[in-house]
Design brief:
Layout (H helix, E strand, L loop, with lengths): L2 H4 L7 H8 L2 H16 L4 H14 L2 H13 L1 H9 L1 H6 L11 E5 L4 E6 L8 H4 L4 H4 L1 H9 L1 H8 L8 E6 L5 E5 L11 H5 L25
Parallel strand pairs: 1-4, 2-3
Length: 219
């Protein structure tokens, strides 16, 4: 949502039409924002910078770049596994909620999955803001006690011989899953590889586009 979105503009009547399509929560957020700006508690320019950051500068596209680099550069991959914070920072992805990062490598024998059982600790610089389901109590509790069942609900079923490791994020440590590289991508450049990486594959609740398991069940 840009600063212009907050304060209208455009053809006559556009605001009325736009407002009618907003959810009750959106309307409340806009009303609160307007009040805070009016009272001088929030600087609109600073707010625009914050919104610009979370719309364009942080998010899963950053994590996808990290994964693509690791897939295509063995030395970078090893650095990422040894010191994820430094390796990720070398690509320019730093900031709040990204001070202490750990990369978890998926292999044919081990599948990693991340949860935050206490709240919603999440690596903002590489994944953006956490999705609603990540913060929801059902995921936070069931991911620990029934990870296979949760993954099945996300759309895939791991072979029985693949070990699942569930990692609990904290305020001190946040995790990024390094998914397996899909087969047949050996000649692809980093841009094309990054396009295969999904947000959920970097949490462990999904797979990169083009990657499947033998006897994988799709639901």
């Amino acid at each position: 949502m840009s600063h212009d979105d907050h304060h209208g503009g455009g053809p006559a009547g556009a605001d009325d039409h736009e407002g009618s399509a907003l959810s009750e929560m959106d309307l409340r957020v806009r009303a609160l924002e307007s009040l805070l700006v009016e009272k001088g508690y929030v600087d609109p320019a600073a707010l625009d910078i914050l919104i610009e950051t979370y719309e364009h500068k942080v998010g899963p596209h950053n994590g996808a770049r990290v994964v693509a680099r690791a897939w295509s550069d063995p030395a970078y991959k090893q650095w990422l596994l040894d010191d994820a914070t430094a390796a990720i920072a070398s690509l320019g992805y730093t900031g709040r909620q990204g001070e202490h990062l750990v990369a978890l490598e998926n292999t044919p024998a081990v599948h990693n999955m991340v949860v935050c059982t206490l709240c919603s600790c999440y690596p903002w610089p590489v994944l953006g803001l956490p999705p609603v389901w990540y913060k929801a109590a059902p995921y936070r509790s069931r991911a620990v006690i029934d990870p296979r069942g949760v993954l099945k609900e996300f759309g895939f079923e791991l072979p029985a011989d693949v070990e699942i490791r569930v990692w609990d994020s904290t305020a001190e440590v946040r995790y990024l899953v390094l998914p397996m590289r899909p087969p047949g991508t050996e000649g692809m450049g980093e841009d094309a590889l990054a396009a295969l990486v999904t947000r959920d594959s970097m949490i462990g609740t999904g797979l990169p586009n083009g990657l499947g398991y033998p006897n994988q069940e799709h639901i």
